[in-house]
């Protein structure tokens, strides 16, 4: 979006971030003439965070901000020196830091890589984020005098006190946060409302406390560490509370801060995952559930590190969610595209946006098991040898709503699809899977419009009402999307096998979609059939030996199913 700031007759047009161009935030800011005072304040703020580099036409600005112009050469040199200092990111999720015992194990695990100078990114301890959210919801209706008694607040206090005591760390590292948390819950109880902005502030206590405890413990055992709150070191995001997106200005800011501190006084950085700072509001934001993965890959790209390690409670990315199908097996190698697709279609193991910085920076991501560090895990890179690859992973997304939309106008009507999609855009509802013909359209709606919230009935009613102005609509609930993530070159083989299995098990596929990338084939079935379907597909693709064109040509089955 081109915006103009008017100041005493001078015009300073500049590029402001929008959803579409947010990645061209401050570093590509351009202006002519003399900007207004408020505009200077904005620039100054960005410059303080190290987020601003002045390039090209910069009349007046350099003198005022004293900013050094970084040309391409400077930038390359900085990246080189970053690479020589800190070597990798190690992100540990909630299950990896769930107790004092686990924290001790993680500390030993980090020390078992003496050749690394890692940056540690942590999530909140165990289920703390869920408990904070529940506490916030209870506070809305419980009255100020009862806010201190909220069960989840007691869990959080007890867990964090017990942990610091068992680690032999002083309670003072978290006492202020716990007091402030209680005050915040009282405030929510008084206001009787929990805005998205307050919700983000509320959940930030989880990561703020886990990182303080961990850094204090490392220091206690003689390993020099320094705690950082992401929102204070340049994680600049959109102001979409509960689902904020990292802005481009983050990379230089974060790199500069972590690198400069390391050079001045080397200490292992321990950074809060999941959190950022809204660029307009300057308030704490969160990156969506599971967002610490994205924090880790952002740091990896910012510093141009050798590797990003994401430590989980499973042996890497598996052929499907082990909580749905326990015989799932680790996938040794994946491409960024496969991993992104898998995450987007609901595999909880990785945050949906987390592959983006890794792909852009071409930094390998290794997914490892903190309970079983010897397991090789999964290596995610730009490319891999696909000669043997058929299916990589099966992902299940439950409780999806499907819509069948048939145009009430004539065949060949111009703009039908555009009208349908503009309705979803206006209502702010994202669409997952789409299949179209000339006059009809089937699609599925994301069950979590925002990661934190289910699509509610009222919103569905609004969708139906709007669509009925231009089409006949059938709303089908309780559907599942089964996504087959696999080799682009073998999609026909995957389809052939999949349909044979489904036909054998008498499972009726209600919609099918294959994206342009062809990495992902999506099948829609009834929720009640989904698990049976996963089991059958998994057995065929991963438990019955190598899948080849030769072991059964079943094109006829596919044709039968499609025709019926
Ligand atoms: N394809 C998959 N591979 C591995 N784990 C998966 C997959 N799909 C879903 N999961 C779930 O993701 C969980 C790990 O992710 P998450 O809970 O975010 O870890 P952490 O909190 O440690 O970062 C696993 O316990 C598993 O149940
Ligand atoms: N604590 C946040 C962020 C996060 O990344 O958690 P985990 O790594 O445990 O999924 C959440 O629960 O969403």
TrEMBL record:
Q: Which pathway, per its entry?
A: Amino-acid biosynthesis; L-threonine biosynthesis; L-threonine from L-aspartate: step 1/5; Amino-acid biosynthesis; L-methionine biosynthesis via de novo pathway; L-homoserine from L-aspartate: step 1/3; Amino-acid biosynthesis; L-lysine biosynthesis via DAP pathway; (S)-tetrahydrodipicolinate from L-aspartate: step 1/4
Q: What is this protein called?
A: aspartate kinase
**Which example biological process does GO assign this protein?**
lysine biosynthetic process via diaminopimelate
Q: Name one GO molecular function term.
A: ATP binding
Where is this chain's protein located in or outside the cell?
Plastid, Chloroplast
Q: Name one GO cellular component term.
A: cytosol
Cross-referenced NCBIfam families, in alphabetical order? asp_kinases
E.C. number = 2.7.2.4
Gene encoding this polypeptide?
LOC115715268
What is the taxonomic lineage of the source species?
Answer: Eukaryota, Viridiplantae, Streptophyta, Embryophyta, Tracheophyta
InterPro entries in the cross-refs? AceGlu_kinase-like_sf (IPR036393), ACT-like_dom_sf (IPR045865), ACT_Aspartokinase (IPR054352), ACT_dom (IPR002912), AK-LysC-like (IPR041746), Asp/Glu/Uridylate_kinase (IPR001048), Asp_kinase (IPR001341), AsparK_Bifunc_asparK/hSer_DH (IPR042199)
As for what it does, the entry says:
Involved in the first step of essential amino acids lysine, threonine, methionine and isoleucine synthesis via the aspartate-family pathway.
Origin species, per record, is Cannabis sativa (Hemp)
State the UniProt keywords alphabetically: Amino-acid biosynthesis, ATP-binding, Chloroplast, Kinase, Nucleotide-binding, Plastid, Repeat, Threonine biosynthesis, Transferase, Transit peptide
- Identify its protein family: Belongs to the aspartokinase family.
Asked whether the UniProt record includes Repeat among its keywords, one would answer: yes
What is the reaction catalyzed?
Answer: L-aspartate + ATP = 4-phospho-L-aspartate + ADP
Primary location recorded for the protein, binned into one broad class: plastid
User: Pfam families attached here?
Assistant: AA_kinase, ACT_9
Q: Which residues form the ACT domain?
A: 405-483
């Amino acid at each position: 979006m081109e915006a103009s700031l008017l100041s005493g007759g001078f015009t300073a047009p500049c590029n402001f971030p929008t959803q579409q161009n947010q990645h061209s935030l401050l570093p590509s800011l351009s202006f002519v003439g003399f900007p207004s005072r408020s505009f200077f304040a904005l620039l100054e703020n960005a410059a303080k965070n190290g987020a601003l580099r002045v390039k090209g036409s910069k009349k007046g600005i350099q003198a005022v901000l004293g900013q050094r112009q970084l040309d391409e050469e400077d930038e390359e040199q900085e990246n080189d020196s970053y690479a020589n200092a800190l070597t990798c990111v190690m992100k540990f999720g909630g299950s990896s830091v769930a107790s004092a015992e686990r924290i001790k194990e993680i500390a030993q695990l980090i020390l078992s890589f003496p050749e690394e100078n890692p940056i540690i990114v942590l999530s909140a301890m165990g289920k703390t984020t869920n408990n904070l959210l529940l506490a916030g919801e209870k506070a809305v209706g419980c009255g100020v005098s009862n806010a201190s008694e909220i069960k989840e607040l007691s869990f959080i206090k007890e867990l964090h006190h017990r942990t610091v005591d068992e680690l032999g760390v002083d309670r003072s590292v978290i006492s202020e946060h716990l007091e402030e948390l209680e005050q915040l819950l009282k405030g929510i109880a008084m206001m009787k409302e929990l805005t998205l902005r307050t919700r983000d502030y509320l959940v930030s206590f989880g990561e703020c406390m886990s990182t303080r405890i961990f850094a204090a413990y490392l220091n206690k055992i003689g390993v020099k560490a320094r705690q950082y709150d992401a929102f204070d070191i340049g994680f600049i995001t959109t102001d979409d509370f509960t689902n904020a997106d990292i802005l481009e200005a983050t990379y230089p800011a974060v790199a500069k801060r972590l690198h400069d501190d390391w050079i001045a006084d080397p200490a292992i950085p321990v950074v809060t995952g999941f959190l950022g700072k809204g660029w307009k509001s300057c308030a704490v934001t969160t990156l969506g559930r599971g967002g610490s993965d994205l924090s880790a890959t952002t740091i990896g790209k910012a510093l141009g590190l050798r590797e990003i390690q994401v430590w989980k409670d499973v042996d890497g990315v598996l052929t499907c969610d082990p909580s749905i199908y326990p015989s799932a097996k680790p996938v040794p190698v994946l491409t960024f595209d496969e991993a992104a697709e898998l995450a987007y279609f609901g595999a909880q193991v990785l945050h949906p946006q987390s592959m983006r910085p890794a792909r852009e920076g071409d930094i390998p991501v290794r997914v490892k098991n903190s309970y079983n560090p010897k397991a090789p895990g999964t290596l995610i890179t730009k490319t891999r040898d696909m000669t043997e690859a058929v299916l990589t992973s099966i992902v299940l997304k439950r409780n999806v709503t499907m819509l069948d939309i048939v145009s009430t106008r004539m065949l060949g009507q111009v703009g039908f699809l555009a009208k349908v999609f503009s309705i979803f855009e206006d209502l702010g509802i994202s669409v997952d899977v789409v299949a179209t013909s000339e006059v009809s359209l089937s699609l599925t709606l994301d069950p979590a419009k925002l990661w934190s919230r289910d699509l509610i009935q009222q919103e569905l009613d609004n969708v139906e009402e709007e669509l009925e102005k231009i089409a006949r609509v059938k709303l089908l609930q309780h559907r599942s999307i089964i996504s087959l993530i696999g080799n682009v070159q073998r999609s026909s083989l995957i389809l052939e096998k999949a349909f044979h299995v489904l036909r054998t098990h008498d499972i009726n596929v209600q919609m099918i979609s294959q994206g342009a990338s062809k990495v992902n084939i999506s099948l829609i079935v009834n929720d009640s059939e989904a698990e049976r379907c996963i089991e059958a597909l998994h057995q065929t693709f991963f438990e019955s030996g190598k899948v080849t064109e030769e072991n059964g040509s079943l094109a006829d089955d596919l044709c039968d199913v499609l025709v019926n």
